[in-house]
C-alpha cells in the first residue's frame, strides 16, 4: 500500500469503528482486550493517535510519554457521542499530520526508522485490529479490504527481524534450527494476490517473504482471519481469527508468535 493510502486509512478505519459502536454501551466488555470495556478501548486508540501526531509534529528525537495511552480507567464515564467525536477528531489530526510529514520526514527513532511512513502504516493497522476488537464486542460484522489485510501481515512479518525480538527473548535462537519454516496461507483470495508468507528459521535471524514452499507448520484461513490470528485474536469458529486451521508443529508456531509479539507487551 502507498504512503498516501496509509494516511487516509487511519481516518477511514476510524470512521468504520465509530459506525460499529454507535448506540453501544461504553461499559460493554471487549473480549479481545481482557479487563477493558468499549470506552477504554476507544480512549486507548484515540490517545495512541494523538501520541503519534505529537511525535511527527514535534519531530521528536527522544521518547514521548505513552502514559495516557493505557491510563484509560475513567473512559466509561464519558458521553458516548463526545468520545466518538473525540476519536474521529484525533484520527483526522493524525492522518493529516503524517501526510504533512512527508515520506522523507523523520520522527522519533522508534521502529524501523521512525519516519512518518512507518507511523502511517503502524497506525493504520493498529486501528484496523482495534476496529475488529470493537466489532466483535458489540456483535457487528467485521470485514477488511484484502489490500489492507495483506499489508498488515507484511508489517507483522517485518517485526520478526527487529533486534528487540532477540534482546527480549534470549531463548529465541532455539527457534533458529535447520530446515524449519512457517507458512501463512490465505484462502479465498485471487491467485495473483500473492497472499502467502514463508518465514524461514534456519539462518542466523528470521527471514520472511511472500511465496509458496514446504513448511514445518502452516496456518491457513481467510485473509482477515489470518491477520487477527497473528495478533492473538483467536476465538471460536466464526469469531475473529477463529477460522484459521493449523497443520504441523503448532508449538513452533506459538513460540514464533510469542516472540514476534514482544511490542504488544511493551
Named CATH architecture of the largest domain: Up-down Bundle
According to CATH, what is the class of the largest domain?
Answer: Mainly Alpha
What's the number of structural domains?
2
* Number of β-strand runs: 5
Rounded to an integer, what's the Rg over CA atoms?
18 Å
Helix content: 40-55%
Helical stretch count?
Answer: 9
Gap from first CA to last CA: 27 Å
Q: What would you call the shape?
A: globular
The portion of residues forming beta strands comes to 5-15%
Order of strands in the sheet with most strands: 3-2-1-4-5
- CATH homology group of the largest domain: dinb family like domain
- Average pLDDT rating: 86
The parts where pLDDT drops under 50 for at least 5 residues are: 105-112
Biggest β-sheet, characterized? 5 strands, mixed
CATH topology of the largest domain: Four Helix Bundle (Hemerythrin (Met), subunit A)
- Name the structural class: alpha+beta
Q: SSE string, helix = H, strand = E?
A: HHHHHHHEEEEHEH
Biased composition (Gly residues): 92-112
Protein name: Maleylpyruvate isomerase family mycothiol-dependent enzyme
Organism: Streptomyces endophytica
InterPro entries: DinB/YfiT-like (IPR034660), Maleyloyr_isom (IPR017517), MDMPI_metal-binding (IPR024344)
Looking at this protein, list some descriptive labels.
48% helix, 9 helices, five-stranded mixed β-sheet, single chain, alpha+beta, Four Helix Bundle (Hemerythrin (Met), subunit A), 266 residues, Nonspecific Lipid-transfer Protein, Chain A
Amino acid at each position: 500500500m502507498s504512503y498516501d493510502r496509509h494516511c487516509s486509512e487511519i481516518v477511514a478505519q476510524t470512521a468504520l469503528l465509530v459506525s460499529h459502536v454507535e448506540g453501544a454501551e461504553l461499559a460493554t466488555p471487549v473480549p479481545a482486550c481482557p479487563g477493558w470495556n468499549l470506552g477504554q478501548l476507544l480512549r486507548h486508540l484515540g490517545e495512541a493517535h494523538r501520541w503519534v501526531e505529537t511525535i511527527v509534529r514535534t519531530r521528536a528525537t527522544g521518547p514521548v510519554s505513552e502514559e495516557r495511552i493505557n491510563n484509560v480507567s475513567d473512559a466509561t464515564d464519558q458521553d458516548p457521542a463526545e468520545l466518538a467525536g473525540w476519536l474521529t477528531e484525533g484520527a483526522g489530526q493524525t492522518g493529516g499530520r503524517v501526510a504533512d510529514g512527508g515520506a522523507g520526514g523523520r520522527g522519533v527513532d522508534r521502529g524501523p526508522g521512525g519516519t512518518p511512513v512507518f507511523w502511517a502504516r503502524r497506525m493504520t493497522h493498529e486501528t484496523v485490529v482495534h476496529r475488529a476488537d470493537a466489532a466483535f464486542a458489540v456483535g457487528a460484522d467485521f470485514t477488511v479490504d484484502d489490500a489492507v489485510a495483506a499489508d498488515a501481515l507484511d508489517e507483522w512479518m517485518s517485526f520478526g527481524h527487529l533486534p528487540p525480538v532477540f534482546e527480549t527473548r534470549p531463548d529465541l535462537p532455539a527457534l533458529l534450527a535447520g530446515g524449519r519454516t512457517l507458512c501463512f496461507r490465505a484462502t479465498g483470495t485471487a491467485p495473483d494476490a500473492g497472499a502467502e508468507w514463508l518465514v524461514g528459521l534456519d539462518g542466523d535471524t528470521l527471514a520472511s517473504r511472500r511465496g509458496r514452499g514446504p513448511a514445518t507448520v502452516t496456518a491457513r484461513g481467510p485473509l482477515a482471519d489470518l491477520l487477527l490470528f497473528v495478533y492473538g485474536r483467536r476465538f471460536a469458529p466464526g469469531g475473529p481469527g477463529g477460522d484459521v486451521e493449523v497443520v504441523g508443529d503448532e508449538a513452533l508456531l506459538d513460540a514464533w508468535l510469542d516472540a514476534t509479539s514482544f511490542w504488544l507487551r511493551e
